[in-house]
Amino acid sequence: MSRTDHTRLFLPGPVEVRREILEAQTQWMIGHRTSEFADLFARLQDKLKRSFFTESRVYISGSSGSGLWEGAIRCGVRDDRKVLHLTGGAFSERWAQISRANGKQVDCIQVDWGKAHSAEMVAEGLDKASYDAVCAVHNETSTGVTNPIGPIGEVVKRHADTFYFVDTVSGYLGTELRVDEWGIDIALTSSQKAFALPPGVAFAAVSDRLLERAQTIPHRGYYFDFLTLEKSLLKNNTPSTPPIALMYAADRQMDSILAEGIEARWARHRAMRDVAHRWALDRGFGLYAQEGYRSDTVTTVENKPGIDVNALDRFMRAEVGFAMDKGYGKIKGATFRLPHMGDVTIDMLREVLAGIDAFMASSK
Ligand SMILES: *Cc1c(COP(=O)(O)O)cnc(C)c1O
Prior knowledge:
Layout: E1 8-10, H1 19-24, H2 35-52, E2 58-61, H3 65-76, E3 82-87, H4 90-101, E4 105-110, H5 119-128, E5 133-137, E6 139-140, E7 145-146, H6 149-157, E8 163-167, E9 186-190, E10 202-206, H7 208-214, H8 226-233, H9 244-260, H10 262-282, E11 286-287, E12 299-302, H11 309-320, E13 322-324, E14 335-338, H12 346-362
Parallel strand pairs: 1-13, 3-4, 3-5, 5-8, 8-9
Antiparallel strand pairs: 2-10, 6-7, 9-10, 11-12, 12-14
Helix pairs in contact: 2-9, 5-6, 9-10, 10-12, 11-12
The protein binds pyridoxal-5'-phosphate.
């Protein structure tokens, strides 16, 4: 018997969204060429900049995060130069694929899944060839690895023409991220991970020098062209019809997040991670990610006892009221993930873990 009126999502995206945030979307629509919309845009812009720790700007895109992968590459990498992707998980590998699909020349520093990239690896890579950009995934959601984005940024800073592109889709608002301090030229994210919004809107903090480079690149496309987005942003607007309902939700959620405190939010995620780790190790599970780089927002559990993840999901839905993750990509089943991100509380995490315990006891 489920304990709630709906199946709560315990997935690494889309995550569970609080009712208050869902309801914020039901405000009456407004036209986007109005001063009311400009007010909403400006209000949200200010809060987004604070949350990314940037003085520059944050674009709002009516898309999922993947669209901004494409935007970053098309606006920031010239056709006759190369881009260096740090790969080692489903998402970092897909981003490299997208660069290839856009005709760019791609090199990769590939690590085994579960391993992190180091500043030394990137330093070595940048000494071998020159690159327009280094693309890193902050928090590799498939493997549960958090890369050392700050230290890698220090290395990238030594190469004046190499920009630093960071996918922080499942890191932003769950674990430390300081865009300006770390020398990041684009930090892109989605709504449905640690931001704890419904899916359908994406955000990118973008540097001035990335816009300058974009001016030198002729075919940037239209929908994810940062220069087009910039022109509108200066008028507190978007080039095409924005996801107004989701912006209402984002504005409301930002108020909650700033009231909690960004750093306090990071600390809550860290505390949940520690609970998840202790629970997993006590029961004979392993932790898939390399020690020292284990994510604060998602724990990828090595399924050493070999529990049936499909049966677990069925049990959790029926008995506790949660939809569960079953692992991602090539490590599905061999791992499953505990996504302690967004508005998940320690109590909710404990409820999930107690549910998994009950499942394991019942299947003995
Ligand atoms: C979920 C995820 C993506 C894809 O984001 P979409 O919003 O689904 O396009 C990209 N990168 C990482 C690290 C993710 O976790």
